[in-house]
Specification:
Four copies of one chain form a homotetramer.
Chain A lengths: L5 H12 L2 E5 L18 E6 L10 E3 L1 E6 L6 E3 L4 E3 L2 E2 L3 E2 H4 E2 L2 E2 L10 E9 H5 L9 E2 L1 H11 L8 E5 L3 H6 L2 H5 L7 E2 L1 H10 L3 E4 L17 H10 L2 E4 L4 H5 L4 E6 L9 E3 L3 E5 L2
Helix pairs in contact in A: 7-8
GO molecular function (chains A, B, C, D): arylformamidase activity
Pfam family, one (chains A, B, C, D): Cyclase
Protein name (chains A, B, C, D): Cyclase family protein
């Protein structure tokens, strides 16, 4: 039998039993949803539907077949995703990270599940707009003003979610704008990424397809924030999040929960992150 | 700015900041892992590795291609997974649940993320064995003795995880035993499932491939617990969990977290559930 | 030992031994190639490359992982592909064609391999243009003038390949034009399809994405030629062919060879059809 | 208009018009068919069935989703499939063959379609048995006696199909025997492969899973015939063929037709090869 004391283990459980509100920060995966053309699209079919094969007792099971990349829908980048000059995070040579053709080192299976303080950085609210302009680079001043306005200083180990409002294009089904190949996409650049690193964040997310500020027409030619975050500092990146409900209800602090699939040797994982707060 | 009071939203966050231990209840997904042959096997490859295409600035991205069923690895069954006599949960006709060839009703995207009290029912510990015998049906008495021994009465809305010890075969790589086609697999039957329903569980999981008690040689010919849980009572089932660490440390009560991928119209989702307790 | 006489079996072989020219009518399958967005895109990755796992004797094998629809790249439509008012070819009810969730009746596995006379109908050459205009409907008069000009009357059992020149957009990498969502695509309509049926063709192909004449902006809203050919007359359709080499060399008559993958219960198959003629 | 003379191009066509018999040498692809566990299994589902989405005019289209390896079902090995000591055929370094993460050199897209003389080597008929024993290595003497008995000397450029009778296990659904992991599989070894090379074959096929003689329990630990054929001599290998009909009708010489999918950069392709002879 357990010999752990109630006080050691039950504080969290008591808080949950008192009532929590769970805000879904993930996107529904549908065939045809907006995603980067660089990755295998999400596809789904039912090999078996109810009625295709009915057992003698009248029971029937339906099942699925899925194919996809790991950087589609709401997802997290593993540290094996991006390299610079042949090196991954920790100065690891890219060849040394591979075993049997998969990234045994720094692969998606090495991302520990997260139950941490999360902070929403609602930049459009700070700037007094519904959403940022296409291609707008979120500055360090924007980030500083936002934490000050919200009174939510970032603490070491936090997960910082940078809202641009661009997720509205996902909601409205405007794929071209959400992907932003021609229009561009707002986001942080190298400077903003470094500021987040300086605050000690464990991970950072955004409501956009690539987290980065993408200038109009430039595509994903260079990804400076990925370099600063993933390669230089080992900070995970979460993309294509739904941050609209948090913003609408001004939920700026919460318990952030993210549990990636332990895909051995992969460079990322689809996820459905949660923001959880006490109350109903 | 937020007008929610700190006391309303911060109790949970304070509990997390005081320190939590996160126990991983999911299995690593690897090519060739044990799974049911009725579902598309998990496969993974890297279309692009570092070095395949290096940008002019020295940056390089690697990515993935995945194909799989949704009932492989650790996963949750949606209520659309099993029907009886042409009906899904809530007496819904199977044809009416389909829209455009997917289960819009009761599909995986309708499973709300779970942040709830979880209870481990460590049946082998109650019976004084390392793991249950192949084909052993966990009785109602076994379940009652277990909650009594653990002093962990199940409450309405809980998630009950029924340990058989069979997950040791997953750990050891004994695929034939884990799948149990010839040997059988221990688990609850219709009676045990009904008892769990009577306690008011929201979901229930196990460390086996199909949750059910599978007699030797019988395969998945009938699935009575699935009928009782999914079809008759709308109780979700989680399979192929890793419950060994919880048992080793006698963690019988915890915050259970499960956030399925919102796979539109699917019959299940791979998941990585967590047990979270206060303390390090 | 064989008792078949040489004269019975060797005429064809002798013709081949005398020398043949094989013209490839298929497209190379590449990730990102133009295709209909209605079907799962072609994706390919190497789970294992040379060097990932080397045997003690110094040998190493590389392998592949593919996901795709069957109506991508050069492909043939099975008779199970299209229905009208709930009926497939032969007045077969669509529900009756299914067994175990696949089209056992009229599926891709029922398409007999073809070794038949093939005729190229080079319509742009008849009209004196390099390629037909977007959205141009090839008329019965166009078809009649073409067979007359070429002196290649269609005979019962032939395979008729209708060239529009639109495949030049596949060659040039102009995906938007090849798919033609906005611009439209040239092709035969219901009248042209009926004329081909009246000539007794066994199958018919084109160098376009959907065989049909697609008006600008209309997409695949209706597919009258598919109805006439597949549903009403059991004539197979081959799409996204490469007909440029045949046209350039004015090869209007040839042995047409097509050997679809016997995909059990599927609605089509990727193929690499050949035109074969005597000579080098 | 064409200026090629009829005699130049029509000999072959005339032979086809006189009537041909087409023998299917491929296997039907079904979910669950026997295949090597080293490759992604063949899976197929219908994302859309008839009735899921009916157009206003009463038309409806069904379609498919496929995932698979390229070395499943009847398939051909590209020269990029196997290397020895870091080299592919032609002493090409394995790293140099890759471009953008695919085998641009020696990939499946480089296999020219085949319309050639084919010869069946019916070894069980020579040895007076229905099929060879598990693990039996077909000797050079067996091959020599077979061509002599059949009076079908192999000529340079031919495709030689070596029958063992093992395909009977595919027909009967005996997956364990066909795969032969425990039992072994009959086939040629290094000596037989070298003899075929010495005859000048362009390609060679068999009715087994791996072409090779596999000793009982040894699995695919070493593949000497692959080395001799693919790496040292650039001779293609075709596996999992259906050679029973050819043997039953003693068709030992024919036109062999094989048209692999032009899968860019892949290591093989599923195929449906044909044997074609004059006559009905």
């Amino acid at each position: 039998m357990t010999t752990l004391s109630t006080t050691t283990t039950h504080t969290l459980l008591d808080a949950v039993r008192a009532g929590v509100r769970v805000v879904d920060l993930g996107r529904t995966l549908t065939v045809g949803m907006p995603q980067s053309p660089n990755h295998p699209a999400y596809w789904h079919a039912l090999p078996r539907r109810h009625g295709d094969m009915v057992r003698v007792d009248g029971g029937s099971a339906a099942n699925d077949m899925i194919s996809m990349g790991t950087h589609v829908g709401t997802h997290i980048d593993a540290l094996s995703h991006v390299s610079q000059d042949g090196k991954l995070y920790g100065d690891l040579d890219v060849a040394d990270a591979l075993t049997g053709g998969r990234y045994e080192e720094l692969g998606a299976h090495t991302i520990a599940p997260m139950v941490r303080r999360g902070v929403l950085l609602d930049v459009p609210a700070t700037l007094g707009v519904d959403r940022l302009d296409a291609g707008y680079e979120i500055s360090v001043v924007d980030l500083e003003r936002t934490v000050e306005r919200q009174a939510t200083a970032i603490e070491p180990g936090d997960v910082a979610l940078v809202r641009s409002g661009w997720g509205q294009h996902f909601d409205s089904g405007d794929k071209a704008s959400f992907v932003g190949h021609d229009s561009g996409v707002p986001g942080v650049g190298a400077a903003g990424a470094q500021w987040l690193v300086d605050q000690g964040v464990h991970a950072t997310g955004a409501d956009t397809i690539a987290y980065e500020c993408l200038p109009p027409g430039a595509g994903h030619a260079t990804l400076p924030a990925h370099r600063v975050l993933l390669v230089e500092n080992g900070v995970y990146i979460i993309e294509t999040m739904n941050l609209e409900e948090l913003a609408a209800d001004a939920l700026h602090e919460f318990v952030f929960v993210l549990s990636p699939l332990a895909l051995y040797g992969a460079t990322g994982s689809p996820v459905r992150p949660l923001a959880v707060v006490s109350g109903e």
